[in-house]
Design goal:
The structure holds 2 protein chains of 2 kinds.
Chain A (H helix, E strand, L loop, with lengths): L1 E4 L2 E4 L4 E3 H7 L7 E5 L2 E3 L8 E3 L3 E6 L5
Parallel strand pairs in A: 1-7
Antiparallel strand pairs in A: 1-2, 3-6, 4-5, 4-7
Chain B lengths: L2 H8 L3 E5 L3 H13 L3 E5 L23 H12 L4 E5 L8 H4 L5 E4 L4 H14 L5 E4 L12 E6 L2 E5 L13 H20 L9
Parallel strand pairs in B: 1-2, 1-4, 2-3, 4-5, 5-7
Antiparallel strand pairs in B: 6-7
The chains are: A mainly beta, B alpha/beta.
Chain lengths: 67, 201
């Protein structure tokens, strides 16, 4: 399926993916992140249940230590 | 638009700053110089000698609470600014009350876990209030790696989104200052587009 990930077109395997599955497929390993699907914040405890569908806009933002 | 008009407009707003370290202290000073009416600062740390490589404090303030020291420094720069300083550790339970009434919130923590916690809490508990986060500022050089990204109307990211501060890649004044000032610049950009709500202030 095609989604928009961080403002770029992205082709993922599968018609319906959980956030966890998307993170594995994209090899996003760093843990400190914010995920939004179509503008809605997905808390960590919903990564296994929140679904990403064809055409969705997904944002994945890493928060790096330092300030 | 003249600066006097900008300052007059900005004086009607309240900005929350979560953390008064490198990002928070420098961002607060930039906002104070710009004339933001009320700045709400929260931090529970004291000023340490190692902070002086990037944070807006002075040697004479080592040992003081950062909240107290920053309030003093802002008063010396612009006494017209109201500073509400809370010497408290921020968490999911006290963030909404502490930053109640803020038009924008600046994420200015050091640790990645606290950054995520602040963003999640504000997005969930204070819907519609924009968060300006800092992510990736360690080391030196690489000017062109520092970016600005608007995710949507409630989340903005300043930083390289890549580097992690550590022993071998210390946070230093120039890059921390760049990101802190990008955050302040974003706050001003948002507030300049916003109408003052005279009845609630």
């Amino acid at each position: 399926m095609k989604i928009i990930l961080n403002n770029r077109d992205e082709e993922l395997t599968g018609d319906l993916l959980t956030v966890t599955e998307m993170l594995i497929q994209k090899k996003f390993s760093y843990r400190m992140r914010i995920v939004k699907i179509n503008g809605v914040l997905i808390p960590k405890d919903q990564y296994d249940s929140a679904l990403i569908r064809e055409g969705d806009t997904v944002h994945m933002i890493y928060l790096m230590s330092g300030g | 638009m003249r600066f006097s008009a900008v300052k007059d407009h900005l004086s009607g707003f309240r900005v929350g700053i979560a953390g008064a370290g490198g990002l928070g202290s420098n961002c607060a000073v930039a906002l104070a110089r710009s004339g933001i009416g009320t700045i709400v600062i929260s931090d529970f740390d004291i000023v340490e000698p190692a902070n002086l490589n990037r944070q807006y404090y002075f040697t004479s303030q080592v040992g003081e609470y950062k909240t107290k020291a920053l309030k003093e420094n802002i008063a010396r720069i612009n006494p017209d600014i109201t500073v509400l300083a809370y010497t408290e550790k921020l968490g999911r339970t006290n963030i909404p009350a502490l930053f109640a009434g803020c038009d924008v919130i600046v994420e200015a923590f050091d640790s990645d876990e606290m950054k995520v916690m602040l963003i999640e809490t504000v997005l969930a508990e204070m819907p519609g209030i924009p968060v300006i986060a800092g992510s990736g500022l360690a080391g030196w050089g690489n000017n062109d790696s520092i970016k600005f990204r608007k995710i949507d109307d409630t989340l903005y990211i300043c930083g390289d989104e890549t580097t992690t501060a550590g022993e071998d890649l210390p946070p230093m004044a120039p890059r921390v200052g760049i990101v802190a000032n990008m955050q302040a610049n974003t706050v001003i950009e948002i507030l300049m587009k916003k109408n003052k709500d005279y009845f609630l202030r």
